[in-house]
């Protein structure tokens, strides 16, 4: 009996009408619900300032995050945790430049903000090829750590 009602044109219109009304209620709920205010931590606020400085100086024209960006400078996704690099290395490069990177004459506050930004970026994951596998369909997947067998 229900199959005959739902299979008719009127039944199908009723189903779509109910779905549309549910969609409207859900949309109204989403746009009117109160979102709790979360104040950013001071380190996150500094990292956000660093992101703005990164964008202002167009650093992604030369540097990359996760392999996306320019090719003149290195990928800086994990520069803060890279062996032989770290915060002191990054500060020295930002304050003085290198043979290929110009000295932008950044203030100490700007350098602190960029360092905070790179620290936060470093927490997002690993960028090197050794951390990923490509399957037969060309899709990229993170390598799983092998669990020790007992």
Overview of this structure, please?
With 150 residues, this protein is mainly α. Helix content is 46%, strand content 7%. It has five helices and four strands, in the order αααββααββ. The strands form two sheets. The protein has a two-stranded antiparallel sheet. It has a two-stranded antiparallel sheet with strand order 3-4. A hairpin with a 5-residue loop joins β3 and β4. It is elongated and about 80 Å long. The mean pLDDT is 85.
Question: In a nutshell, what does this entry contain?
Answer:
By secondary structure, the protein is mainly alpha-helical. Helix content is 46%, strand content 7%.
Helix share bin: 40-55%
User: Structural class, from helix and strand content?
Assistant: mainly alpha
Principal-axis shape: elongated
Instruction: Tell me the strand percentage band.
Output: 5-15%
Tally of separate helices: 5
Order of helices and strands: HHHEEHHEE
Features:
single chain; elongated; 5 helices; two-stranded antiparallel ribbon; 150 residues
Topology of this structure?
Elements: H1 2-6, H2 9-32, H3 42-56, E1 64-65, E2 68-69, H4 87-96, H5 108-122, E3 132-134, E4 140-142
């Amino acid at each position: 009996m229900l199959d005959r009602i739902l299979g008719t044109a009127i039944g199908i219109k009723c189903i779509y009408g109910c779905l549309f009304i549910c969609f409207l209620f859900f949309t109204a709920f989403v746009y009117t619900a109160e979102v709790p205010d979360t104040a950013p931590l001071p380190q996150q606020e500094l990292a956000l300032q660093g992101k703005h400085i990164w964008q202002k100086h167009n650093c992604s024209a030369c540097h990359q995050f996760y392999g996306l960006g320019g090719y003149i400078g290195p990928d800086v996704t994990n520069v803060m945790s890279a062996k032989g690099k770290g915060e002191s290395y990054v500060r020295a490069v930002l304050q003085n430049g290198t043979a290929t990177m110009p000295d932008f004459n950044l203030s100490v506050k700007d350098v602190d903000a960029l360092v905070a930004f790179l620290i936060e970026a470093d927490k997002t994951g690993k960028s090197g090829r050794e951390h990923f596998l490509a399957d037969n369909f060309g899709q990229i997947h993170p390598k799983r750590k092998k669990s020790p067998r007992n």
